Amino acid sequence: MRSSLFLCAFSMMVLSVHSLTLDEAVNNALQNHPGLQVLQADIASAEGDRISAGALPNPDLSIGPGVKHTSDAGASQSRFHGNLEISQTLEFPGKRTLRVFLSEGNIRLRQIALEGFRQQLLIKVRRNYFQALAAKQIALLRTEEVQSAQTFLQSAHKRVEAGYASDFELLKAQSDLIIARKGLGQALGEARISKLRLAGLMGIPADTIFEVEGKLDSILFSSFKADPVALALVRNSSIKAQTLQMELAGKNIEAAKLSHKPDLTLSPSLEYTDNEQVYGLNFSVPLPVWNRGKGDVQAATAQQRSAQAELEKLKQEIILSVRTAMDKVRLAEEQRALYTPEFMEGSKSILTRAEKVYGRNETTLLIYLETRRAYFDALTDYYATLNQWADSHLELEAAMGMPPETHQNGEP
Questions:
Q1: What is the DSSP code (8-state) at residue 17?
Q2: Is 226 exposed, middle or buried, given 0-12, 13-18 or 19+ CB atoms closer than 10 A?
Q3: What does 19-38 look like in DSSP terms, one character per residue?
Q4: Contact 220, 406 (CB under 8 A)
Q5: Counting C-beta atoms within 10 Å of the first and last residue's C-beta, which end of the chain has fewer, N or C?
């Protein structure tokens, strides 16, 4: 009776809480996840650096007030004397343009990082959502197993009282019920943990009460119309970022060459006394005598070669990841297809019939126990297969860097 009340309360709780859809989970994550806010702040910071990179150097103002003291034929005289100078540096042509280009490249890198983080976040949300669905269905299966164990216990009581069975059957039924209740408690715990992980990704309080909506076997994954490897090489965010890194490395070589080109500094000046004013215009440039920037150019060239090598390495790793994920998808599809609707419906009907004939003393304990075990083992493995099937598709999309496209309720 206590177990029945517990199962009834659990069912009412599931029905009364908010049903969370996959789209709602994704939208919550995109709105609330702090990682996105960090990357958006990084982009804003890089945009500020872009403004600074395009600004002209500020002029320098120098003011030197003083007193000029002169002596002539024993007489001394003091007069006001002042110096005023303004200096403006004119950068070598191309320096500022290149600096702006590099800062804009840094903005694009951070935008690509944001895009990649968003895609990986969506995949993580969906993976945890599907895991929560699997945990929910396992909990419902364990609930059904408890109910079946209760039916077994009731039938065993009747068989023992009628003299058709020994006390062993009653002990076995009690043991099965204890094991079933332990399994239900563990399944409910795993379901709570999976929802906690999902809540963390969505950026909502951990104590938010919700139930994931849908079933794993109602999810459809869109098939790729082009070669997944080719799509990955074009759309993967890591490749986009590394390609841009290589482009910026080439610009860094130009920047290293320009860095030691002389900037011109103009300095108009005024020297003032009450009876004399001296105007001047000074020009100054650094002389590239000792340091001509060869070391900087060599270092920038090495960084470009390193970026190119990293790009080729990354492409090989992604190709391997995509092909491995494709094999996992193919294997998961084959394993999922083994569980036909006829098999699943037939297993349930066989269990129901076995419970009835056992209660009427028309079958043996061994046949009944084997039927129960086969049914619950098959469903447990079925849900594990569904979870692996969904995870294999998510792994493929993660390797490709593709936007997630899945559908529920069988609607493509």
A1: S
A2: exposed
A3: EEPHHHHHHHHHHH-HHHHH
A4: yes
A5: N
Q: What pLDDT is recorded for position 407?
A: 43
How far is it, in rounded angstroms, from Cα 143 to Cα 24?
A: 27
What's phi and psi for 287, nearest 5 deg?
-95, 120
Q: What is the CATH number of the domain that holds 194?
A: 1.20.1600.10
Q: How far from 253 is each of 177, 305, 369, CA to CA, in Å?
A: 74, 11, 76
What's the pTM value of the predicted model, to 2 decimals?
A: 0.79
* DSSP character string of 177-243: HHHHHHHHHHHHHHHHHHHHHHHHHHT--TT--EEE-S-GGG-EEPPPSS-HHHHHHHH-HHHHHHH
Token digits of residue 114: 């944001």
Q: Are 25 and 129 in contact (CB under 8 A)?
A: yes
Residue 120 tokens, joined: 């990986």
The domain containing residue 23 runs over which residues?
2-58+93-260+308-407
Burial class of 344 by CB neighbour count within 10 A (0 to 12, 13 to 18, 19+): middle
Q: Is residue 73 part of a domain?
A: no
Residue ranges in the chain whose pLDDT is less than 50: 1-3, 5-7, 9-15, 406-412
Please name which of 27, 23, 49 lies closest in space to residue 101, comparing C-alpha atoms: 49
Q: Is residue 348 part of a domain?
A: yes
Q: In this structure, is residue 224 part of a structural domain?
A: yes
Environment class of residue 29 by beta-carbon count within 10 Å: exposed (0-12), middle (13-18) or buried (19+)?
A: buried
Using a 10 angstrom Cβ sphere, with 0-12 exposed, 13-18 middle and 19 or more buried, the burial of residue 2 is exposed
Whether 295 is covered by a domain: the verdict is no
CA dist 160 and 37 (Å) reads 66
pLDDT for the residue numbered 405: 56
Give whole-number Cα distances, 377 to 140, 144, 366, 380, in Å.
Answer: 14, 13, 16, 5
d(CA 349, CA 353): 6
Give the total number of structural domains in the chain: 1
Please list the residues that pair with 406 across neighbouring strands. 221
pLDDT of 403 reads 60
Q: Is-contact 15 213, C-beta < 8 A?
A: no
